[in-house]
């Protein structure tokens, strides 16, 4: 039996719930003269999604019809005037919820309010109306300025402090709490600064969190129900109209807090005068010689009166466009006139408005842009200091002229080539050097310029240059030959740099010159180039005659038939080539009817200058040893072709290349020559 009863109860709860109409739990306590909003909603209904609502009111027993969402004739005569003027209206918040809005509620509006929803359900289930009690109390809230007049005007300077007070009290018969908010309006809308809520908690407006933590914004309660806003270190954002906004809250029947009314009073209009500050360096552009002293003065002027202190910082940067974060801090003097430490730089307070920077023993690296930054600090009531304004001067350009050493440069050739592959050696010497103490270092750069028959200007090519640490940097023209040991750069003596070309070629002929660079060591042990001196050029040139090469081919057997041996010799003669050697290539020009070689010329066999034989395009596998090329004498070569065939017909030539010894045991190509053709024609020999 218990099981059956439990199952029936569960089924009823699940399927028999029906329509539910809800209004707030009462009583609702509201203040006379305020606007009252009473929500009503419906759920778990059938029919259309948009539901209608009727509102009625009862002071004692009978209900009087107020307003309806669907029946324009629903309103009773008692309420027609207020509904017609909009003092009472319905405001739909969703398809299943509306709000009854009563403007300027009066004690006569105290009573029970009933919300009813006409049925759209298939069966009548649930509740179709709900009631709530509204209690109207008198207005006991009073909000006012603590001063006799309603609003004041305050003119303040940046960094000043100010206090504003308002009074808020309630004589409500109910147990209500006050929520006090200080607001500011500098534009169109009021913004919250700081609140003391009805639950006794402090609540910050956006942007005031850090100032509240620092104690610059405070809200204190005082005697006679006063609420005081204290602002320290006022800035431009604190300028505007201030008001005290007070709301009254009561705890409802459901234990939630409900705001029942709100009032405000404007307390003051605050104007914040920005502190003027000009920061100027007394000179514009400065030029000073290396190791002298640099003297700059920063002048500050301000319209600030009363007690204040200035803070000055000097900066240095390589560019006038650098920001403070990119610049280097040189020295600073705080508001207590304490100067940061430095060995070669000093900062002194000449008078109330002037601060002198002195840099002793200046270096070239001190060239750049100098500027000073000044800040004005004012004391606060708690003994601390607040920075009210900060400005930075325009940069001043400072050029430090280096003390240049005095010296000359002389370039000469200790070895000059008479022929190709002879060595060349050039010496670049520093002479008449003065003022070249230990803080001066010399490096060299070597240049080459090609000589042209005409007067055309040819740009010089860098062969090599040296850094301040004597690291050699090679140019494109000399890089490979230097790495191979064909060109050598070295320092022959303390005052002499040398360039040696082991094997000079025709492409090396031209003009050479050197540049000696002087480097000065700075205080941080870095080296900076202070001077370049260029030598006169030295010409490397020798007369040359054109190479000539003649090749004569001779057929040894004037007549032969297919199957016999073809034999020819090539005799070579040359001029103006030093100890030449020859490489020989045998070629054949076949008739155009020969489809095996549509290009016409075939490379058969070659012999290089070291007498190494190589088969080129000879592809007859049955006659791998059918061709022979040999050196008979230094200038004579013999070619044989065994077991000749009809397909061997054509014109045969010797292609000869003359080689001369180059640097490092290498051979250098001098000139090419082509012999007369030797013809093989089997038809003629037939």
Automatic annotation (TrEMBL):
Topology of the protein relative to the lipid bilayer: Single-pass membrane protein
Pfam families, alphabetized: V-set
Keyword match Repeat: yes
UniProt-listed InterPro entries: Ig-like_dom, Ig-like_dom_sf, Ig-like_fold, Ig_sub, Ig_V-set, IgSF_V-set/TM_domain
Keywords, sorted A to Z: Disulfide bond, Immunoglobulin domain, Membrane, Receptor, Repeat, Signal, Transmembrane, Transmembrane helix
Matching SUPFAM superfamilies: Immunoglobulin
Signal peptide boundaries: 1-18
Domain of life: Eukaryota
Keyword Transmembrane helix attributed: yes
Gene Ontology CC terms: membrane
Record's subcellular location: Membrane
Residue ranges annotated for the Ig-like domain, each copy included: 33-125, 158-266, 277-374, 405-534
Name of the protein described by the UniProt record: Prostaglandin F2 receptor negative regulator
Organism: Leptosomus discolor
Lineage: Eukaryota, Metazoa, Chordata, Craniata, Vertebrata
């Amino acid at each position: 039996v218990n099981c059956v009863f439990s199952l029936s109860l569960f089924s009823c709860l699940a399927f028999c719930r029906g329509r539910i109409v809800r209004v707030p739990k009462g009583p609702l306590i509201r203040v006379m003269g305020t606007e009252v909003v009473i929500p009503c909603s419906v759920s778990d209904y059938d029919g259309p999604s948009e539901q209608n609502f009727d509102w009625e009111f009862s002071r004692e027993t009978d209900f009087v019809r107020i307003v309806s969402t669907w029946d324009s004739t629903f309103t009773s005569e008692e309420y027609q005037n207020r509904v017609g003027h909009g003092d009472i209206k319905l405001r739909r918040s969703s398809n299943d919820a509306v709000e009854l809005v009563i403007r300027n509620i009066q004690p006569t509006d105290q009573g029970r309010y009933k919300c009813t929803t006409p049925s759209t359900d298939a069966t009548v289930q649930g509740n179709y109306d709900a009631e709530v009690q509204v209690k109207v109390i008198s207005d006991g809230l009073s909000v006012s300025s603590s001063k006799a007049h309603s609003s004041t005007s305050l003119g303040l300077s940046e960094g000043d402090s100010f206090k504003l007070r308002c009074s808020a009290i309630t004589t409500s018969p109910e147990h209500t709490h006050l929520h006090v908010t200080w607001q500011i309006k500098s534009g169109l809308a009021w913004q919250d600064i700081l609140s003391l809520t009805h639950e006794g908690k402090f609540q910050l407006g956006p942007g005031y969190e850090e100032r509240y933590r620092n104690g610059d914004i405070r809200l204190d309660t005082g005697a006679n129900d006063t609420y005081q806003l204290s602002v320290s270190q006022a800035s431009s954002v604190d300028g505007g109209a201030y008001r005290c906004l007070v709301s009254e809250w009561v705890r409802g029947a459901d234990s939630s807090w409900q705001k029942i009314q709100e009032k405000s009073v404007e307390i003051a209009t605050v104007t914040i005068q920005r502190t003027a500050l000009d920061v100027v360096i007394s000179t514009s552009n400065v030029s000073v010689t290396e190791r002298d002293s640099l003297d700059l003065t920063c002048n500050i002027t301000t319209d600030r009166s009363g007690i204040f202190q200035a803070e000055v910082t000097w900066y240095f940067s390589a560019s006038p466009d650098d920001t403070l974060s990119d610049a280097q801090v040189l020295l600073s003097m705080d508001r207590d006139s304490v100067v940061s430490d430095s060995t070669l730089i000093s900062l002194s307070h000449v008078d109330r408005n002037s601060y002198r920077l002195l840099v002793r023993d200046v270096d070239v690296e001190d060239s750049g842009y100098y500027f000073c930054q000044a800040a004005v600090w004012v004391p606060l009531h708690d003994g601390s200091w607040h920075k009210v304004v900060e400005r930075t001067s325009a940069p001043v350009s400072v050029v430090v002229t280096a003390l240049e050493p005095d010296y000359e440069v002389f370039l000469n050739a200790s070895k000059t080539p008479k022929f190709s592959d002879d060595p060349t050696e050039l010496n670049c010497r520093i002479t008449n050097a003065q003022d070249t103490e230990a803080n001066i270092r010399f490096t060299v750069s070597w240049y080459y310029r090609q000589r042209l028959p005409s007067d055309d200007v040819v740009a010089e090519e860098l062969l090599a240059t040296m850094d301040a640490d004597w690291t050699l940097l090679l140019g494109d023209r000399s890089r490979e030959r230097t790495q191979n040991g064909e060109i050598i750069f070295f320092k022959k003596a303390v005052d002499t740099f040398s360039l040696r070309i082991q094997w000079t070629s025709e492409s090396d002929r031209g003009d050479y010159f050197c540049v000696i660079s002087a480097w000065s060591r700075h205080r941080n042990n870095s080296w900076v180039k202070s001077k370049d001196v260029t030598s006169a050029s030295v010409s490397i040139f020798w007369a040359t005659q054109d190479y000539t090469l003649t090749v004569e081919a001779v057929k040894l057997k004037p007549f032969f038939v297919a199957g016999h041996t073809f034999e020819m010799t090539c005799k070579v003669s040359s001029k103006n080539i030093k100890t030449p050697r020859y490489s020989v290539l045998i070629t054949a020009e076949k008739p155009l009817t020969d489809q095996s070689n549509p290009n016409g010329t075939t490379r058969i066999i070659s012999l290089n200058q070291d007498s190494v034989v190589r088969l080129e395009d000879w592809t007859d596998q049955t006659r791998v040893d059918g061709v022979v090329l040999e050196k008979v004498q230094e200038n004579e070569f013999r070619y044989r072709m065994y077991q000749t065939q009809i397909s061997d017909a054509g014109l045969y030539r010797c292609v000869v290349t003359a080689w001369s010894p180059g640097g490092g045991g290498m051979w250098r190509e001098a000139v090419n020559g082509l012999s007369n053709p030797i013809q093989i024609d089997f038809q003629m020999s037939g």
